[in-house]
Amino acid sequence: MSRLITESYKKKLDAEDGYVIARGGGLRIALCYPNTHSIGMANLGLHTMYELFNSIPDVVCERVFLPDPDELKEYERTNTPCSLSKLRAAL
How much is the pLDDT for 53? Predict the structure, then answer.
């Protein structure tokens, strides 16, 4: 996994309040936002759905965003996933 991408997401997650570190779960949901992390995090609907899904027992919801334009070549070069939870595991 790319060190540049890992460090970028570490900074993003450190700046967040309320992200959930979930393990297991009978139902896994990927909440996909069709834009970058910074644009998606400004959307209150995304926050509402993320909190709602993660408040249900045995449900794990993670967020997926498009890569930032300046990091896209690094994603392609290293085949790095867009999943925050997978990147979080590498942090």
Answer: 93
